Amino acid sequence: MSAFEGKADIAWPDRLNGEGAIVLDKAVVDLSHWDEVDSFEDAKDDGVVGIIHKATESNNYFDPTYNQRKKNALAAGLLWGAYHFLRPGNMKDQAQYFVSEVGKDLDLYAADHEDEGVSLDDLKTFLREVKRLTGKSPIIYSGHVLKEQLGDRRDSELSQYRLWLAQYTSGTPSWPKATFPQWWLWQYTEHGECDGIPGDSEGNLDLNKYAGTKQQLIDEWREEVPPTPAPRTKKREPRRTKRRGPRAKGKRPKARTKGALRKRANRT
């Protein structure tokens, strides 16, 4: 049995249905070195709450724009997260490389699962290792690859993670609901517009929706893995000894005299 079987899934808030549901259309912008950035302050004024930036790929590539943009975005008051682009290979090595480059003090880590050569077992190995190294539970970014690999079945281990869904549509997206009852972020377009961030050389920019308020997104951005509780040991109570009452004094048999013993002997 998997260590995750029998555990409760994440308590997903149902914010997509019901009257007055709030969806932030520019909640998060994801970036890499391909994208131009003019002003994170302007992006924040335009409604952006957080940035998720590419940091690493495989076990040998680090995005050269990552560090300076992290500094600028945090100075502008934006939330910050990093993603790793998974490639076939040793998943533990990739997780260790990712964390060694971005550090263990980030609020949000993401696994970019787009390469069909990376299996679900590979993905889980990567997620477990990042969790072990940072104490935080990464989010999973994927679209058709994850849908095809999971199908309609439920994966009890992956259900412990949040889904960052990639599907470009103006309609209703689809995702593996048996494993993820709801998406957490939805990358719904690659042709977005945002003040301060013009996008790549062709004007393309990924925008991501969040179902909820700005404060809810801020509160949920950082998700730490709860520490494993130490096994409880039963305290042994001191043994209670029964208090015995005073012993009843019985009548002692009378000592027989030599004369009495003789008499008894003569009777037999």
Description:
The chain has a single domain, classed as TIM Barrel, CATH 3.20.20.80. Helix 3 packs parallel to helix 4. It has seven helices and nine strands. With 268 residues, it is an alpha/beta fold. Helix 5 links the parallel strand 6 and strand 7. The N and C termini lie far apart (84 Å). It has an eight-stranded mixed beta barrel with strand order 1-2-4-5-6-7-8-9, surrounded by five helices. The chain is globular, with a radius of gyration of 34 Å.
For the biggest β-sheet, the strand order reads 1-2-4-5-6-7-8-9
Q: Roughly how many Å apart are the termini?
A: 84 Å
> Helix count, per DSSP?
7
The CATH level-2 architecture is identified as Alpha-Beta Barrel
- Named CATH topology: TIM Barrel
CATH H-level homologous superfamily name:
Glycosidases
Q: CATH first level: which class?
A: Alpha Beta
Give the SSE string.
EHEEHEHEHEHEEEHH
Major beta-sheet overview:
8 strands, mixed, barrel
Query: How many beta strands in the DSSP annotation?
Result: 9
Domain module tally: 1
Q: From the helix content, strand content and strand pairing, which structural class follows?
A: alpha/beta
Low-confidence stretches: 1-12, 247-253, 257-268
- Rounded radius of gyration (Å): 34 Å
List keywords for this structure.
alpha/beta; 268 residues; disordered N terminus; TIM Barrel; 18% strand; 8-stranded mixed barrel
Detail the topology: elements first, then pairings:
Blueprint: E1 23-31, H1 40-45, E2 50-57, E3 61-62, H2 66-75, E4 79-85, H3 91-102, E5 109-112, H4 120-134, E6 139-142, H5 144-150, E7 162-166, E8 185-189, E9 207-211, H6 214-221, H7 258-267
Parallel strand pairs: 1-2, 2-4, 4-5, 5-6, 6-7, 7-8
Antiparallel strand pairs: 1-9, 2-3, 8-9
Helix pairs in contact: 3-4
